[in-house]
Amino acid sequence: KKSHVFASQFYAPWCGHCKKLEPVWNEVGIEMKNMGSPVKVGKMDATSFSSIASEFGVRGYPTIKLLKGDLAYNYRGPRTKDDIIEFANRVAGPLIRPLPSQHMFEHVQKRHRVLFVYVGGESPLKEKYIEVASELIVYTYFFSASEDVLPEYVTLPELPAVVVFKDGTYFVYDEYEDGELSSWINRERFQGYLNVDGFTLYELGDTGKLVAIAVIDDKNSSVEHTRLKSIIQEVARDYRDHFHRDFQFGHMDGNDYINSLLMDDLTIPTIVVLNTSNQQYFLPDRHIENTEDMVQFINNILDGTAEAQGGDGLLQRIKRIIYDAKSTVVSVFKSSPLLGCFLFGLPLGVISIMCYGICTADTDGGADEHEAAKKENGDRELTDEGSEEEQEEEKNGKYTELSDGELKQKDIMEKKKD
């Protein structure tokens, strides 16, 4: 029904991730109902209703969609109760939320690290803003306000305008410098400096930016760890005008995820720049001592003089398959050695037995043929030559036959004489 908004989880009964999400999804339904939310929460077995799942473009499980009128919005955030509820309330509400007073603006600004605001009356820019909001509401809120509602420190070159408030300051959209409004908002929906994890990297892939990361141990307070983090923060803040269109900055706690991503063992602390669009990465060819070194490293990447590693070529794909297979085997043995022995030892044992059987069969067959040939040759030798006894018997036999013949001839001759 177009008057209702539905949050639906498409699942498969055999899907482990779906079973893990089930208690969270139940909590989402209960809390949304208690809040009096207009969003109706449900789920659908995509294997039983495959035609409906196909109609909504479900390609994996679980898939969470919010259905609002004729539109279906995909949820791509963390699978936690609070994040899912926040997404549902954001998408279910109005596309553009008005801020009627300075007090309301200040209240909203405190709740949002990144805040997009349209300033002005009706205009083609506002129509474009509404169009972009209908697509990107899955990621962030969109607000509108009059100029007198904004803080006094905000100066706009002209109206109407689209402004983003973040990182303790604000930036105004410029169509000539920033290109399409949708691209600009997609780039600007992140803070300049982030605590990066696997999910954040996945989201940053949509921005087309390179991601410069200080890979450190958050629990390690040594000078080197804090120094690299500070360098990245300073570049993000002081060189925004130079790099913000091409680069996102942040730090990552620990190297486990980055090692699996790069199929390499990075020693922390270190700095790496990732290209999420083609899986390439860049490592500095010398030690990063200060901000100037980092700026030089970034400029080398931009002008093509820095050497790119990784990528999504054929060799890298083969390497990824081997690496993933190796990682799977190691993780299975680490978590459960007995299960690992059963899963991998049993097939190897069967294959070994089969190979042994085949090799043994060939060897025995050869031996049998050899023995048969030997026996045949032996028979031939015995037939042609015979043993000394057989040769003696043969001679005696011939002698006896000749003697009998001579005796017969003698009998015939004697009969003739008679």
Automatic annotation (TrEMBL):
<keyword id="KW-0732">Signal</keyword>
<dbReference type="GO" id="GO:0005789">
    <property type="term" value="C:endoplasmic reticulum membrane"/>
</dbReference>
<feature type="compositionally biased region" description="Acidic residues">
    <location>
        <begin position="384"/>
        <end position="393"/>
    </location>
</feature>
<feature type="compositionally biased region" description="Basic and acidic residues">
    <location>
        <begin position="405"/>
        <end position="418"/>
    </location>
</feature>
<dbReference type="InterPro" id="IPR052250">
    <property type="entry name" value="PDI_TMX3"/>
</dbReference>
<dbReference type="GO" id="GO:0003756">
    <property type="term" value="F:protein disulfide isomerase activity"/>
</dbReference>
<keyword id="KW-0325">Glycoprotein</keyword>
<keyword id="KW-1133">Transmembrane helix</keyword>
<comment type="similarity">
    <text>Belongs to the protein disulfide isomerase family.</text>
</comment>
<comment type="function">
    <text>Probable disulfide isomerase, which participates in the folding of proteins containing disulfide bonds. May act as a dithiol oxidase. Acts as a regulator of endoplasmic reticulum-mitochondria contact sites via its ability to regulate redox signals.</text>
</comment>
<keyword id="KW-0676">Redox-active center</keyword>
<dbReference type="InterPro" id="IPR036249">
    <property type="entry name" value="Thioredoxin-like_sf"/>
</dbReference>
<dbReference type="Pfam" id="PF13848">
    <property type="entry name" value="Thioredoxin_6"/>
</dbReference>
<keyword id="KW-0256">Endoplasmic reticulum</keyword>
<dbReference type="InterPro" id="IPR013766">
    <property type="entry name" value="Thioredoxin_domain"/>
</dbReference>
<feature type="region of interest" description="Disordered">
    <location>
        <begin position="367"/>
        <end position="418"/>
    </location>
</feature>
<feature type="domain" description="Thioredoxin">
    <location>
        <begin position="1"/>
        <end position="93"/>
    </location>
</feature>
<keyword id="KW-0413">Isomerase</keyword>
<keyword id="KW-0812">Transmembrane</keyword>
<keyword id="KW-1015">Disulfide bond</keyword>
<dbReference type="GO" id="GO:0009986">
    <property type="term" value="C:cell surface"/>
</dbReference>
<feature type="compositionally biased region" description="Basic and acidic residues">
    <location>
        <begin position="367"/>
        <end position="383"/>
    </location>
</feature>
<dbReference type="Pfam" id="PF00085">
    <property type="entry name" value="Thioredoxin"/>
</dbReference>
<keyword id="KW-0472">Membrane</keyword>
<protein>
    <recommendedName>
        <fullName>Protein disulfide-isomerase TMX3</fullName>
        <ecNumber>5.3.4.1</ecNumber>
    </recommendedName>
</protein>
